[in-house]
Amino acid sequence: AAAAAGGARRRGGRSAAQALRAAAAAAASAGAPDEVVLYDTLRREKAPGRPSGGGPGLTMYVCGVTVYDLSHIGHARAYVAFDLLFRVLRRAGYDVTYCRNFTDVDDKIIARAAENGESERGLAERMATEFHRDMDALGILRPTLEPRATDHMPDIIKQIETIIENGHGYAADGDVYFSVPSMAGRYGRLSGRGDGDNRAGERVVVDPRKRDPADFALWKAAKGGEPTWDSPWGPGRPGWHIECSAMIEALLGGRVDIHGGGRDLTFPHHENELAQAEASCCPSCDEGGAPFAGHWVHNGFVNVDSEKMSKSLGNFFTIRDVLQQYSPAALRFFLMGTQYRAPVNFSQRGLEEASERMFYILQTLVEAQGVLTEVSGEAAAAEAADEPQQARRGPSDAAQMAEALLSEADAALRDDINTPAVIAGLSAPLKALNDLVAPKGKKKKKLKANPAQHADDMGALLRALESVLEMLGLPAAEADREAALRELRGRALVRAELTEEELAGELAARVQAREAKDYARADEIRQGLEARGVALLDGGVAGGTQWQPCARVPVAAGE
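The structure corresponding to this sequence follows.
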């Protein structure tokens, strides 16, 4: 790879970085997948996430949404995290089967459908469509499989029957319960809860039909006006927990290499899934057999301005709410600024700073591509005219920086999806690329004398940065960058409560003030716009006065 990179001097940005990527991709396809290390909730430590079969085939199941309403920022946090994991695993060379379900029968769906005067199925399908719309906006790849609970009733009923036959469940007047005491010594391993923690606790009334207060529902008897399915215990519908373990049994063979979801699902949902799978004799019931899930991965909570997100606190935001004010790229970038296992503090200031940084990154790449095209033309013309150019001595600093960026980003992502390290690693290459876009002094003279070297250096950094953006699921291609910049500007105007025409008027007024040498008025206009999240930049590659989103700068009292 190094030899290929060192020997490559390709115009239009074809560079050492691209040669390295091609070599890495060829190596991944030819050999064993690279190791990806993840924190495992059950082990309480980091460990390699490996397929049970030892080959490149890997299964991942992530708990999906209950489709009764628009998805919120907690969902955005979870599915961005697992989208990153999906991308990292595939890049590492694994053949990933990614399954993410829809819960489409539930108390909340039934209640909301009745409130809206629509069918439960109609509501569920409508909200599933809206969920896809939000996920697509955030650049989240579609999973391999997206099963719905209602399509797997025979599988759910079959697993419940097996649980009962094995002595871990019992029927009671049309309901079926899982017997938690029957798994004594095993139940609670995932969440770390002891038997005493699983009692009813704060419950006011415990169902007298339960043999133990900690028992949970596998099947719920039919109630008037609710959707029902026939079963050996009478008409009814499944409890929430059983659908995931049953679908894993049906679609992924009874075990999964990676099982994921939000930390709030660790108990009771995932604890109950694990108990159900073992009670229905997944391979972990056999001594030395593979466990139900080889790896348990959980993302951290979302706090809003340092408080837990809650509808009762009035700090609850849907993804759709947020995307009215901030671009999808900015929201994704913001979420990746915190490592996926840590709690993320969702704030307006944080989103504004993410918007500003995302704009800087994309604008740097857009400007670099324009200058690179120009410099590549100069290099081609000099080569055609057989003009002498300075000798090159091994890989340049820019090529080495590009190589380091790619390898360090890849290593950080394979080490428990360390996105903050990747984002921090962008700073130096971006600065170096900006220096090549607008070189000054002796450096400008030196590069002017050797446009081929200038093109190679710009191309190496530009393509490496594009590759890292692609790893993160951010806009990397030229057309996508341009579209994302338009979105970032558009949302900034929404936050500033300005139209394009009004902003143009402010800019024109500032030009007039400067021409009249009324610099106090010009500064007042600039500061007023900054207070609304619009930063003005004079000069630069494009010339004139440009504007970009920024974190709002408060105007001091009395100004």
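The longest strand covers residues 256-262.
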